[in-house]
């Protein structure tokens, strides 16, 4: 299942950097990607032979990884807070 418009707007509101941020900030993009990755991971558990979805999942994971690296390089405090909120690193 994909991320609905309502869920995406909730995530953007929770992770936006400024009042005028409509989802373009790196933190908001990471939050939306994380939600999509979690949904697609559930799909992959039931449909392990779905190679096209697997490729899409890998692309999303790599995009999130690059965005997280960008945030970590430019604002380490925001990076730590984002990781805790999303529950990514253990």
Write the layout of secondary structure elements.
Elements (H helix, E strand, L loop, with lengths): L4 H11 L10 H21 L4 H24 L1 H11 L4
Helix pairs in contact: 1-2, 2-3, 3-4
Mean pLDDT: 92
Q: What's the alpha carbon Rg, rounded to whole Å?
A: 14 Å
Stretches where pLDDT is under 50 for at least 5 consecutive residues are none
The number of E-state strands comes to: 0
Structural account:
- By secondary structure, the chain is an all-alpha fold.
- It has one domain: S15/NS1, RNA-binding (Helix Hairpins).
- It is built from four helices and no strands.
- α2 runs antiparallel to α3.
- The model has no long low-confidence stretch (mean pLDDT 92).
Give a short overview.
The protein has helices spanning 5-15, 26-46, 51-74, 76-86. The chain has 90 residues and is mainly alpha-helical. It is globular and about 40 Å long.
What attributes does this structure have?
74% helix, mainly alpha, Helix Hairpins, 90 residues
């Amino acid at each position: 299942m994909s991320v609905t418009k309502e869920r995406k707007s909730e995530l953007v509101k929770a992770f936006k950097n400024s009042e005028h941020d409509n989802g373009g900030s790196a933190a908001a993009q990471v939050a939306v990607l994380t939600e999509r990755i979690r949904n697609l991971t559930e799909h992959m558990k039931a449909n392990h032979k779905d190679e096209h979805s697997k490729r899409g999942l890998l692309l999303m994971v790599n995009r999130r990884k690059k965005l997280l690296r960008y945030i970590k390089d430019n604002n380490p405090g925001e990076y730590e807070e984002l990781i805790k909120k999303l529950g990514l690193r253990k």
